Each structure stands twice: as structure tokens, then as C-alpha cells.
Amino acid sequence: MTKSPNRLLATVFGAVYLLVGLLGFVATSAAGVGFFDPDGGLLLGLFEVNIFHNIAHLLIGAALLIAGLSNVRAAKSVNIAVGAAYLLLGIIGLFIVDSPANILAINGADNVLHFASAAVLLAVGLGADKNVRASVA
Amino acid sequence: MPQITRTWLGFAAIGAGLIHLALVTSSPLPVAVVLAGLGIAEFGWGVLTFARDRLVGPRIVRAAALAPVILWSLLVVGAALLDATWLTSLLPLIPMSIATILELFATAVLSGHLRRNQDPDNPPPTPEAPTAGRYLLSILAGGVLASALVTPALAATEAGRYAQSHGGHHAEFVPAQVDDDPLSDLVLPGHQQH
Predict the structure, then answer these.
(1) Please, are residues B24 and B36 in contact by the beta-carbon 8 Å criterion?
(2) What is the DSSP letter of B161?
(3) Which of B44, B55, B64, B82 has the lowest CB atom count within 10 Å?
(4) Inter-CA distances, B103 with A125, B30, B107, B109, Å
(5) In terms of pTM, does the model score above 0.90?
(6) B140 contact residues in A (CB cutoff 8 A)
(7) Of A107, A120, A126, Cβ closest to residue B143
């Protein structure tokens, strides 16, 4: 696994997102935040999350972790797919912050993180392990 | 070109592309058409840079990256000389400055690459592939830096005007206190001033 950037990245990001999803529940339960509440609780005092956002983190983390532990092709495919989804979410996030449509309780710090995740996942998914073909590419 | 440098180049191109695309909605039609074309080209080239082993059209891309920098600089200088501030308001300062930084980075990297590859008979040795850990750390650093630059730029565009924090609006949009009594500013002489 340590020889494939895609597997390594998927595993590390998967574990981090799973942890972030779990810690998010601490933030939302402390602040009494609802499922789709546009005003979420603050994770690490910076990233705004609600319950829906936490579940999304858990699912993304699980997908990345499973793919990273499986094989290069799966890791590459999931990295590209999640990267593209984060890029889209980053762009949409700029428009919906501070509106009732903000069902993920996204704030500015979340947007930076989403763009950073998209950049890294897409760069590694598209650029590394080129001898392996991704199933979604 | 080393794989890590090529990826950073892709980040710069995609970042500049996103900023130019975000400026389309707030620009007049002729400027919007140019920005949309430029943004799509930059974004597409950035993705190609990730996916391909070789850079696509480095000479053309270098010229295309430098052209918006020169045009915007001329616009800013012209607006200052002619005292026409409405010209600079067409293209907001923060997003354009950050796009310019990314374009200058791309221009510098591409210039270095072209200089090293001037002699087709004597190409530079192929750089060794980095280890997975070093590659990922470098990509992570580049991705975080690019996002930290691009997100404030996007937030300063038309799209970002809706993206203010909850408290932000109140501080900025408190209406001025209106004094209902038009005579309140008058200083009338009192008995002691007669």
C-alpha cells in the first residue's frame, strides 16, 4: 500500500474523515444542532457542521478507507469521484452559505477545506498510478 | 518536469480558471465572454496537466498565462492615469490579484521548463519519481496553499457576496441614524451670550 500514492491517500483521508465525522457529533450535540440545520456547531472552533454534514463525512471516510485498503484501481476511482464531488460542493458552497438552502451548514472554513480536499484528491487520482485505469475515469 | 512541480502547475491553472469563471457573472458581456473562455481553458489545461505525463503546449500556455496579467495591469494603470475608477471596478482587485499570482507562478515554472528543454538533441535527464509519502506531502502542501489563496478570491466575487458570515451583515448594513429634527444642529444663542 505504501508504494501507491492513491491507496495511501485514500486510507489516510478516509481515516481522517471518519474521525472528523465522529468528532462532529460531539460538536453538534453540544450545540443542539438539528439534522439539516443551516446554523451548525463548530468543529475545532472553525468548521461548521450539522448532523447531515457529519453523516456525509462518515460515508466519504468509509468509502475512501475501504477503497484505500482494497486495491489501487478502487482507490484511484474513489479519489477521483470524491475529489470531483468536493470541487462541485466547494463551488456550490460559495453560493449557499448564509441561505436556507445551506443544509450542510457550510461556512467559509468548510469551503477552503472542500477545495483543498478536491485539489489533492483529483491531483493524486488523475496524476498518480497511471499504469492503472480508474473505473470512473 | 518533476511530477510534483507539474501537479503544482495544475493547481495554479485550475485555481486561476475557477477565479476567472467566478468573475463571469459580474462582468459586462464582452469581458464575460473572454473570462469564460480563459477560465474553461485554464481549468481544462490544469486537469490535462494532472492526467498526462507531458505538458500540453507549454509555449502557448505561457503566453496565454501572461496575457491576462499584462491586460489587467494596463487596465489598472490606464484607469489611474485617466482617473476612471469605473474601469477597475469591472474586475475586482482581490480575485484578479490572486489570479495574477497564480498566473505568474505558472509563467515562471513554464519558462524554466522551456529553458531547460531548449536543445532537442540534448534533453535533460528524466527526474526520478518521488516516493509515495514525499509525493503526497508535497501535493498536500500545494493543495492547501492553492485553496487558501483561491477561496478568499472566490469569496470576493459576485458569488461570494452571498457568502458572508451571519454577523457580518449587521455590522455593515446598519442604517445611518437619521435626525428627525432639522433644527437640532443650529446653535442658538442663550441668555448669557446676548
Answers:
(1) yes
(2) G
(3) B82
(4) 24, 22, 6, 10
(5) no
(6) 120
(7) A120
